[in-house]
Amino acid sequence: MANRPLIAGETIATAGRTIGEGDIALFAGLAGDFTPIHMDAAFAETTPFGERIAHGPLTMSAAIGLLTQTGLLGERVIALVNLNWDFSGPVRIGDTIRAKVTVQEIRPTSKEGRNLVTFLLDVANQHGESVQTGHMRVVVKTD
Question: How far apart are CA 120 and CA 43, in angstroms?
Fold first, then answer.
């Protein structure tokens, strides 16, 4: 996918992605996180959520993946610098998440041909409820 221009202040919406049981099982195996609230349906029924929920970092990773599909990153990315993330609600099996992504800041680095870009992501479920928000800073090649 070709790079879209990066414009400070621009906000775009990502496509949606439904989080399924397979996503949770794959993430648990990859991360080694088999916490009962994610993996044990009987246990999860006893929690305030009443059912299994996705790992917070799974949802964060999926939202960043949705961002990559917008063309805002692409081949220009050099490095991830920082993530600062808040988890405000559960993502249940079958929930569809989308992210509203704002290019908050673009500033040159000390190295020629590079910018530091800060993105704000607001991740919401299919009901429009915000479940996560975060800032992501990446170093990119200048256009």
Answer: 34
Residue 119 has pLDDT above 60, yes or no: yes
Q: How far is CA 88 from the centre of its chain?
A: 13
What's the predicted TM-score (pTM) here? 0.93
Sign of the alpha-carbon torsion through 2, 5, 6, 12: negative
Q: Does the CA dihedral 21-27-32-37 come out positive or negative?
A: negative
Q: Specify the 3-state DSSP secondary structure of 123.
A: strand
The answer to whether 92 and 54 are in contact (CB under 8 A) is: yes
Structure tokens belonging to residue 53? 């929920």
Q: Does residue 2 register a pLDDT over 70?
A: no
Residue 59 to residue 92: CA distance in whole angstroms: 10
Contacts of residue 22, defined as CB under 8 A and 6 or more positions apart, other chains included, come to none
pLDDT at 5 over 60: yes
pLDDT of residue 1: 53
| Complete DSSP assignment for 74-112 | GGGEEEEEEEEEEE-S--BTT-EEEEEEEEEEEEE-SST
Tokens at 133, concatenated = 């928000």
